[in-house]
Design brief:
This protein is 21% helix and 34% strand. The protein is of the alpha+beta class. Helix 1 crosses helix 5. It starts with 14 loop residues before the first strand and ends with a helix. It is found in: Cytoplasm.
Length: 278
């Protein structure tokens, strides 16, 4: 039995405005979407966009006061720059073990006394390396040595948290603050109660002004402080503020783009299933 989509479905227009952007942070507003859509993007950004992380560690020598298992675990949590264009997931590679197409080798050989940092991991591919140089790995006392080879592979956060590209990925409704001029007694109590300084009292015009509405957390402390019920705080339906912060393995805009591509692929599969029948 085939399932045909309705021709009467309305297609809404989605508007995206970038508010803040740097190497590891992207903040934008999106309008014209619903909660299931924006939450699907959030989840995919967090656990389905692949990144590179150390999976296997061959330890040849370890004189430090840290167990091999703890050392391997610590190495696995070091963020690595990722190239999704030239690499594939290990499950999709046709090699028998490891190859440059699905993995990269990082060598560590140091002798104390010194603190070993992430920059001491020497990658066979200079483009695929720790994103930060100053992540401490271990301390070596005089005469102590460590020698190992770490193999990094692509993976997704659904398998292990070390493959999550985001350190923060969240959204909230775009705030909407309404002040009823007829009810407002100009007592400025709402201004005093606001913990983020969103509101300001205008002495000249004897009214409350809204300063930075996007910084509003919608805690409604100002509403509780208004005895005349002149102020309301709510979220705008269909409009959100979205924040993506990455660990440096991938730029936030690439994480977002990849997440959209993955979601699009999922919807195509559903459409093909529906058109093919049950």
């Amino acid at each position: 039995m085939g399932i045909k989509p309705s021709n009467k479905q309305e297609v809404s227009k989605m508007d995206v405005t970038i508010k803040n952007k740097d190497d590891n942070l992207l903040v934008f507003t999106v309008e014209g979407v619903d909660v299931p859509f924006i939450n699907a993007i959030r989840r995919i950004c967090t656990v389905e966009v692949p990144t590179l992380a150390i999976e296997d560690v061959d330890i040849y020598k370890n004189d430090a006061k840290i167990f091999d298992e703890a050392l391997a675990h610590r190495l696995g949590l070091i963020p690595l720059t990722t190239d999704l264009e030239s690499m594939v997931l290990a499950s999709e590679c046709d090699c028998e073990d490891h190859c440059p197409r699905c993995s990269v080798s990082l060598l560590l050989k140091e002798k104390g006394p010194k603190t070993v940092y992430s920059k001491d991991l020497k990658s066979q591919d200079p483009q695929l390396k720790p994103t930060y140089d100053t992540i401490p790995i271990m301390k070596l006392k005089d005469g102590e040595e460590v020698e190992l080879e770490a193999i990094a592979q692509l993976g997704i956060g659904l398998e292990h948290a070390k493959w999550q590209p985001t350190t923060a990925c969240a959204y909230k409704y775009y705030p909407k603050i309404t002040i009823d001029a007829e009810k407002c007694e100009s007592c400025a109590k709402c201004v005093e109660e606001c913990p983020r300084g969103i509101l300001e009292f205008d002495d000249e015009n004897n009214k409350v002004n809204i300063l930075d509405i996007e910084n509003c957390s919608m805690c409604k402390t100002c509403v509780k402080g208004c005895e005349s019920d002149a102020i309301t705080v709510e979220g705008q339906e269909g409009k959100f503020i979205f924040k993506i912060e990455t660990d440096g393995s991938l730029p936030p805009e690439e994480v977002l783009t990849r997440a959209c591509d993955i979601l699009s692929g999922k919807t195509d599969q559903i459409i093909e299933f529906c058109e093919g029948g049950i």
